[in-house]
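This entry is passed on directly below:
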Amino acid sequence: MMTIARNLQRDGVAVTVFGRQIESLREWFPGVETGGDLLVGDLAATLAGFDTVIQMHHEKPFAGLEQFHPRVIFLDHICRVRSHESMADRLARFCHDELRLTSAHKCNGMTAPAGLQHRKNPLRVAIHPTASTADKCWLPERFIRLAIRLRALGYSPEFVVAPQERADWIHIERFGLTLPELGSLDNVAAWVFESGWFIGNDSGIGHLASSLHIPTLSLFMRRGIARTWRPDWGAGQVLIGSTYLPTGFLKERYWKYMLSVRQVSRAFEQMRATLHFA
């Protein structure tokens, strides 16, 4: 959504973005007005000062949002349209075609605060083994085996999970693997920005890494989902786990079993060789 905010702002429109994630990352989007999560009870009063309200999905985070403001734009149609474009490109096209912003671009304006060094740790591979739903997650034990394999190749794999997920992953330290305690999302962003590489499921942290131009390998259950939701701000690749499974049901249920550690490791090495990074 920051792609839309960035394009509107470049065209001289005053924009405020609400949500706890953007509030945590406010220093990474200089010049953008931000606010925390909105409460239903405050919607009418808060939104009254705006000419237009934009929400990605019709039913979330607020169902019936049009009851609280006379001009609401929903973006569900962008998600559903048949297209080979990523969401990043679709949002830029929406800005150009529907908001009439002639110089629209998919750049979201994310900028690292002073004092951080891009890819400071070129051999550090940030591994994100979780996602918003369990069906998006590759098998935990294979993430561990992948990390051990990467370590043997000379990389420094480190896992990143949300604070509430930490208890489920602390056992990886028995294998000599690292699970840094990063805390807030802005600390995660700083850590990812100074990492050399990223490997993870279809998740928000993958988009964060891509926005920070960290080479990103993303694991997806289905090709159609990957086509739409692949991280597409920086260099990266996607790996589909269900290529040889015949039906949607089988793809979603068994993709994580079909995707081997060797396949992911090979895809990572191919990405590294293609990008000519350290």
The radius of gyration is 20 Å. Residues 24 and 185 are 6 Å apart (CA to CA).
